[in-house]
Write a structure and sequence with these properties.
14 helices, Rossmann fold, seven-stranded parallel sheet, alpha/beta, 2 domains, Arc Repressor Mutant, subunit A, 316 residues
Length: 316
Amino acid sequence: MNDRNTMAYRAAALYYRHHQTTEAIAKDLGTSRATVSRLLKSARELGIVKIELDDSFRPSGQLDHRIAERFKVRATVVETGPTMSALMRMERVAHEGARLLDSVMTDGTVLGVAWGSTVTEVARFLPTRQLSDVVVVQLNGAGNARHTGIPYSGSILGSVATAYGGQMVHFPVPAFFDQAATKQAMWGERSVQAVLQIQRKAHVALFGIGAFGGAIPSHVYSGGYFDADQQKTLRTQGVVGDICTVLLREDGSYADLEVNQRATGPTPRELAKIPRRIAVVSGGHRLQALRAALQTGAITDLVLDEQLAQALVLQR
């Protein structure tokens, strides 16, 4: 692996610093042009090469500027074609989300992660970069009556922690308690309080936006947390989606929903205490939920696909 990394570095240096063609690099390294292309791709994925754009040169009036001005967030709109599959669109958005997250990770960062289908993809695209004293803490419980949720949430946290050589902190509680009183009692336990304390120390939070339906359904609505009747009831209550498994109405309200008294994720108000809060969102079916989340003020950085961005700025 070290030899491969060395080759990737050499190829990248020749390509980006000395402006050699892939054909010239292949001759220099004694390999093929196809191998050089793979080495350059590896160099980008491993963080050997970091490509940045100076946003001061970006023309005004683009979607990200309009979203930033309207919703008071840092917005990154990912170019995605209208014929692109839902999976490919999500992968592109997740890749950009991973790039943004990596740009804010430093030694000593406490990163809060809320599990979900989009965050799973973000974790997959993170480059490997060893940092010191990084802590990756789970923001919301993952269990339900059918499973503990530990393999699912643990896989996401593990991928992120491994990328930065960090410590992983699980939150071993269900996503939703059956009774609000049970949650209140558990929140008094020292083991739970210890995790909550780490969550409160987070410098950065990473999360997606959950919503009903869609070609790639949100895990909270497809993973056995709510059955069909319960989802129907939630819809009649005006619920359009969630942020960190705290359910939201379209106007961003959430405090008076009974289900949220049993939810274990941070409320938007609690989430807003974390300095940097990155939401990565893909898919038109998340429009109402995203709009609701933006109205809570819980998002500082938003990464989304082009079609969703267009719908967001057109909606009144």
